[in-house]
Design brief:
This protein is mainly α. Helix content is 40%, strand content 9%. Helix 4 crosses helix 10 and helix 9 packs antiparallel against helix 10. The protein has ten helices and seven strands.
Length: 268
């Protein structure tokens, strides 16, 4: 229930020190992801520019609140740390968000507005994800958040996944340049309580629902892109996920003994 708090979700993201993780665990080979449709025309990342007029028109028809409008206009920008694993500025920013939402630090334990300790669990099924989660656990401890990391076998993991029996998971969503009805299965309100759906975050957001509807009904490329960009903005700025990372390049191995033959086969 505590993850229903946008402040807590954003604090979890602020304390994920990607710069440290990338340097220490992965040798600086990765780039932080900041979009569900990254590196495509469908991306709603603010690095690609402001929301299109078609996107803002859709928000106007929904009667979006001023706060939500400001959040969507700003979009998601990944926090940048000093790479120390103990960035004081980001920690102070996270504390400020939590204090405004009614959280309090008692000793070394963060407590929610009802006074209950903030204790979360992340379930993983691969050792490399366990290593990542353990690094994040040390970072969250600076906020007084207790994170348990549990490595499960495949059958246990799948059972808990299908029944939404978890706080946090490490998961890959795959996107195409032609998103459609499957987006409702991933993020739609109707899928939030349906066991077996992939709305693992339990998202119920009218802007996301409207974006998916506009996406599937779009009759022009411009309308399709605007709906996808708004969907991306709503997903990322809602802090439903702590974005991970991707390899920005493709690696190719070559060997001087391998070359094109002098004569090409007739079959290509």
């Amino acid at each position: 229930a505590s993850l229903q708090s946008p402040a807590l979700r954003q604090a979890l993201d602020l304390m994920f020190d990607f710069q440290w993780i990338n340097k220490v665990l992965y040798g600086d080979i990765y780039q932080r992801s900041d979009s569900y449709f990254g590196n495509t025309p469908l991306s709603g990342s603010p690095m690609r520019g402001p929301l299109s007029p078609l996107s803002t028109d859709l928000l106007d028809t929904l009667g979006t609140s001023a706060d939500d409008m400001a959040r969507l206009q700003a979009g998601y920008v990944a926090p940048q740390s000093d790479g120390s694993g103990r960035d004081r500025q980001l920690r102070a920013q996270a504390f400020e968000l939590l204090a405004e939402a009614g959280y309090q630090l008692t000793g070394t334990q963060l407590r929610d507005p009802q006074g209950a300790p903030v204790h979360l669990e992340v379930i993983v099924q691969r050792r490399e994800n366990e290593r990542l989660a353990l690094a994040w656990r040390r970072m969250l401890a600076q906020l007084g958040i207790e994170l348990s990391v549990r490595l499960l076998d495949t059958s246990q993991y799948q059972r808990r996944l299908q029944n939404f029996d978890f706080d946090i998971i490490v998961y890959d969503y795959y996107a195409s340049l032609s998103p459609g009805n499957e987006q409702a299965y991933y993020w739609g309100s109707d899928a939030a309580d349906n066991s077996g759906s992939r709305n693992y975050a339990g998202i119920q957001d009218p802007v996301i629902d409207a974006s998916i509807d506009a996406l599937t009904r779009a009759s022009t490329p411009e309308g399709f892109r605007a709906a996808a960009q708004l969907l991306d903005r709503a997903l990322m700025s809602g802090h439903y996920f702590v974005p991970l990372f991707h390899n920005p390049v493709q690696w190719v191995a070559s060997w001087h003994h391998i070359e094109y033959p002098n004569r090409q086969t007739a079959y290509g």
